[in-house]
Amino acid sequence: MKSALKEADQAVNGPRQKSYGSPVDGFEKLAKMWSAFLGIQVSARQTAVMMVLLKVMRESHRHTWDNLVDMVGYAEIAGMCAQAEGPEPPSEVFYSKSVEEILKANDAGVTFAVPPKQEWR
Known about the structure:
- By secondary structure, the protein is mainly alpha-helical.
- The protein is built from seven helices and two strands.
């Protein structure tokens, strides 16, 4: 029987690191790029969580095994990043809204933007 967990572990902790380096280092770089683009601070952990959300969105459109493997892998990377970053208090912006609230507000044209240069935890 196939195991998404085993496949994700191989992808995250296997030979790919020789080609791309540490997942934590890679997501720290990606977080800096997203932070510059968005004008707010985005952590490596948040970047990995947002990649999980991307795969959830894709899976909601059409099931593929790859989506499930990637969700598990990105969740593992989010955990690795969280350990590297240390404990952080939850952010009202990141955690206080339900998905339903966010989607309704988005449909109404409301955004939950954080002012520039404010840290987004």
